[in-house]
Amino acid sequence: MKQLEDLDYADDIVLLSHKHQMQKKTSLLNTNSLRTGLRIHKGKTKIQNILLKNSEPVLLDNDPLQTTNAFNYLGSIINETGDTDNDVTARIGKARTAFQNLNNIWRSNLIRRKTKIKIFNSNVKAVLLYGSETWQVTKHTMKTLQTFINRSSGTF
User: Crossing angle for the helix pair 139-153 and 85-101, nearest 10 degrees?
Assistant: First the structure.
């Protein structure tokens, strides 16, 4: 049976490891990166342990890498508990900014309500729901999202 070992996207890599193989994978990635002229940025490289207590630090060039409880991957916040509350809150903040940037449209009497709804759906809801396919859908999450949508769309 094959296991998923890593997630790659553009200049981001997430190494996945069961048990205590992370040091070996990190060293191998560093060696292969250096062969191709790439360097791993120690300040941007983080380790997240899930359900692992008292683990040995993972080293990169004999320096321990920082451990974190959460990290951002492709616009989504990944945390050790797997909940999505922080991600939903961050998305609402980004959607609120997108909404505020369109204030001239919302206040305009020259633009029909039907057109404003289309603009809202394509420019605000799209920002709000980006990455939502990976969220745990709970009643609380649905209520939070619906509250934001109702409050925002109620202004035009």
Answer: 10
The predicted structure's pLDDT at residue 27: 93
- Average pLDDT on 118-146 reads 93
In terms of domains, do 95 and 59 share one? Answer: no
Alpha carbon distance 155, 123 (integer Å): 16
Phi, psi of 73 (to 5 degrees): -135, 115
Mean pLDDT to the nearest integer, 146-151: 96
For Cα atoms 62, 66, 71, give the angle at the middle one, nearest 5 degrees: 140
Q: How far is CA 106 from the centre of its chain?
A: 29
Closest CA to 77 of 64, 93, 55: 93
Give yes or no: residues 61 and 117 share one domain. no
86 and 63 inside one domain: no
Give the residue from 87, 78, 73 showing the smallest Cα distance to 49. 78
Q: Do 21 and 60 share a domain, yes or no?
A: yes
The domain of 103 spans: 82-153
> Is the CA virtual torsion 96, 46, 78, 8 positive or negative?
positive
Is position 36 within any domain? yes
Report pTM.
0.69
Domains: count for the chain: 2
